[in-house]
Amino acid sequence: MNGRRLAAASATMLALTGCSAGSLIPGASPSPTPEVTYDSVTELRDAAVEDGYDCPDWRQTNVVKNAAQSGNCSSADVFSIYLSEEDAQQTIDGVKSLGTEVHVLTGGNWIINAPTAELSSLKEALGGTIVQYSGTVRLIHSACG
């Protein structure tokens, strides 16, 4: 296979897997896929709703610690956005310390805490990483392995 065909085949594989080119080069470290970020919690909510998430009673509450904005569609979920990925990580670390079972979808500068059954379809639509907390954190499903 010549160089152009190999490059085209590699680009097609990347498009299908959503992974970066760095992960296909032997001996090279994979480059992380950039996460989508949102400017407001309503923008995050709108993206979820656009992809089929049920949001019967939106309330922007802004009560989540470290979050720039937060809100919920029902008593079963919480949407939050952060000024930085570090702020989002602080919230994740705080949840880990609670010792209760929690499942979240996180990416870029946002976190969605929603029923477990909803997280897979949200991940498919929005990207990110599903993380489960039950005393200790376990990675359930990430964007690129």
Notes on the structure:
Residues 1-21 form the signal peptide. This is Lipoprotein. Keywords: Lipoprotein, Signal. This protein has helices spanning 3-17, 41-50, 85-96, 116-126, and strands at residues 59-60, 69-72, 78-81, 101-107, 110-113, 129-134, 136-141. With 145 residues, it is an alpha+beta fold. The chain has two domains: 1-33, no CATH class; 41-141. A hairpin with a 5-residue loop joins β2 (69-72) and β3. The protein is globular. Mean pLDDT is 75; it is low at 1-32 and 137-145.
SSE layout and pairing:
Elements (H helix, E strand, L loop, with lengths): L2 H15 L23 H10 L8 E2 L8 E4 L5 E4 L3 H12 L4 E7 L2 E4 L2 H11 L2 E6 L1 E6 L4
Antiparallel strand pairs: 1-2, 2-3, 3-5, 4-5, 4-6, 6-7
What labels would you give this structure?
145 residues, alpha+beta, 7-stranded antiparallel sheet, 7 strands, globular
Radius of gyration: 17 Å
Strands, count:
7
Number of helices: 4
Strand content: 15-25%
Strand order of the largest sheet: 1-2-3-5-4-6-7
Cα distance, first to last residue?
Answer: 27 Å
Largest sheet: 7 strands, antiparallel
Structural class: alpha+beta
In brief:
The chain has 145 residues and is α+β, with helices and mostly antiparallel strands. The protein is 33% helix and 23% strand.
